[in-house]
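Sequence in, structure out. Go.
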Amino acid sequence: MVSVNILALEVSTSSAKAMIYSPEKGIRGVFSIPYKDTVNDVVSQDPDGIYQAVMECARALIEREGCEIDAIGLGSTWHSVLFLDRERKPISRIKTWANTEAAPTAGRYRKDDKLKRWFYQRTGCMVHSIYPVWKYLHAKQHGQIDPQGYLSSQPEYVFEKLTGQIGVSRSVASGTGFMNIHTLEWDEEILDFVGLMASQLAPLYELDHTMPLSEEAASRLGLKAGIPVALPGPDGALNQVGAGAMGRGIMTMSVGTSGALRVASPVPVLPDDPSTWCYYVTEGKRLAGAATSGAGNCVQWFGKKLNRGSISYGALDELASKVDALDAPIFLPFLYGERCPGWEDSRAGGFIGLKPHHEVGHLHYAILEGVLFNLYQCYVVLEQLMGMPREIRISGGIENSRWWLQMAADIFQREIYTSNVEHASTMGAVAVALKAIGALKSLEEFNPSQGERIVPNESMARLYAKRFERYMEWYHKTANRGE
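Output:
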């Protein structure tokens, strides 16, 4: 690889992150800034507040490291939408993946089985409020948009502010519900269905397409204008790239704010029963996967709101490790609704089987277990579709808890590998930028070494099988109550 420095900027659900990477020296520096509460409340974000945080974060790292920057890679979240007026000015906050206000509208359409399957087979997306197409339709029916305005998103807005240009990667677009997963173009039939014109959406490009950094943004960052800026990629796709999992049979499992399982495929994977999703990465590769809305956000909810931050997460793990698992309550991790496999966006979460003797440790244990049970549900479905993966690579906040990692291996009864690459999705943005400037021929070349191997404890298999059976019993008992 040639000697270059890549600035990777990631706009996540909870913070802005910047990384400078050199193929010769590796990660030179990382800096992050949590969003202010006024900027981000998980379900919505202030677009200019997000951009300011990104710029502040990037400038601080650039000044600290004091090196030239040759290209910029961008990472973001999937499934956000931002409504613009006809002058391309925001008329709302960004609605994130966690925003379920369109659930009533999506729920009505989801009852039409023919329409649901038609939509799914074209887009790889379910009729569900997470997807921008249903957020748009809901907002339109409630008079919340400019009919002649434009649709943007969290990553598109940041890219437009950095370059002054309009564009969206097919990877980001594949998570909107507006793009055909087969042709990789905006789907005219879907656009006709919702009453939207292609001209109201950004032009589609491959993930490594670049546009030059604008004079204004360059001045703010202390960089040279004209540096190539690669189109933003979504965190899920970039995680697959950054984990070196673009080849066959490698499953990534990310457990961060939300959770997901993904496997790369050369063709769309669309089962008759739309229990999973199928999005696009780049280089002709699709991702077959499943996502859960409740993961680290449930852990954080308990730690901050119920426990009021009085006990550290490490101390909570210690308490949880000492409880009798068979005696613990069951936790359904649907505080933000359900994505896969049931797609019930109005489903509620909570504890089942609470007893007077249950304490903080029992509840924390149940949350960690419930999050992994929802992911294991998805794993079973994906294994039926794609076959057993030869390897599972894990990333996200779960890596901060050795005890939770071990629980994952014990529930899945599979060896699980952590990554030697810290910040996998940010590294994915680095890899895309390297390809964009010709330092990589293909993203499959980016293959970091494995990290720690977590070996399952076979003696725990029967206990978790029994607990999972109980979880599934309550999962089915509580289905469809919110629709």
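Check: The mean pLDDT is 94. Residues 47 and 94 are 6 Å apart (CA to CA).
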